[in-house]
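Folds abound. A case:
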Amino acid sequence: QLQLVESGGGLVQPGGSLRLSCAISGGFGSDYYTIGWFRQAPGKEREGVSCININSNVVSYADSVKGRFTISRDNAKNTAYLQMNNLKPEDTAVYYCAAEDWVFTTTADLCGHVAYWGQGTQVTVAS
């Protein structure tokens, strides 16, 4: 069974930075899965933030985070990352790491078939 464990959340001031990590274990190994980051703010639906394919040569970002967030992964360390810069209050949410089997991944629809979820980590942006 694939397990995803997020870390790195916390309280940060507007304009600040955080790096989230997602530790990947079990399943068929981290390099079998496309990895994504999603978030859910209070009273809102969960939304996709960013996704990265197994070879790190295809990535996607929500328009709201383009130019501020960077997704990456290190398959040797079984870890994926989300570097978040210039954070805004509207980025406040619980951030979830997610995964889908690479066989379901298409360039046009990264993370369209997520089957695995982490427990989430809280990110709060406030002064």
User: Anything to note?
Assistant: The radius of gyration is 14 Å.
